[in-house]
């Protein structure tokens, strides 16, 4: 069964929504867009942007390592779990979902939970949300923070900030904004009134898009605030400014750099986790073969311990 899997790995922001057919599973993160399909080609007939193609057990293994945070620049980070859950929820509700692919995704989540529990407790570095809190609350001493966006990362930020600072939320999805405001006791700036954000000194943006939301004109005015910090976690980035880290604009690459160094003693845990993932992947292949029958010869995946980011 796993032999029929194909996984396309694109850099974040390079694949447009309209290029995809609806019966493929799509996982979008701040680093990449992954498209998983079972025994089909999920794209319309157009030239694809640069990508890597992984097949069979290697595709299952790649996704397993991704969900466990081992493909991230912040090794072991937990945000990816929420992103996977959300992508799975969307796929499971689709009328065009592939039931075999849905089963594989369910097993992936089960295996990822086992790996995290058995091998990766304590391995995770600072997450995007906690590093953003460090910048805005611990260093800048912000007492009020505006969170832009209403997705999983925005809620992670809210949970990080709410005991230390007052929070205002601004996002396009009014229903989700109302829900978050009620649950967490947030103030709200309506999306159509977002121009007033130029007067807010402490902002954390989670919205990623192939367009500019905060341009040079915005930052020219915003930069006149005496004590200020803008943290941009959006991917693709929606800001356009020449302002640097030293001038109060923290970008996603700055967050990556801060959390990228892995302590040497944790490397052994990671090696054990990867070995366990390989074992689980081969176990899944055998179980799927037993249940659904083999369509192709069993191919043992080759593990590259030195993972390169696309």
Word description of this protein:
The chain has 310 residues and is an alpha/beta fold. It has nine helices and ten strands. It is globular and about 65 Å long. The relative contact order is 0.15.
Which structural traits does this protein have?
310 residues, alpha/beta, six-stranded parallel β-sheet, four-stranded antiparallel β-sheet, 9 helices, 40% helix, 15% strand, globular, disordered C terminus
Shape: globular
Determine the N-to-C terminus distance.
Answer: 27 Å
Can you give the mean pLDDT? 86
Number of E-type strands: 10
- Weakly predicted, low-confidence segments: 295-310
Major beta sheet summary: 6 strands, parallel
Q: Encode the helix/strand succession as letters.
A: EEEEHHHHEHEHEEHEEHH
| Portion in strands | 5-15%
Rg, Cα atoms, Å: 21 Å
| DSSP summary: helix tally | 9
How are strands sequenced across the largest beta sheet?
7-6-5-8-9-10
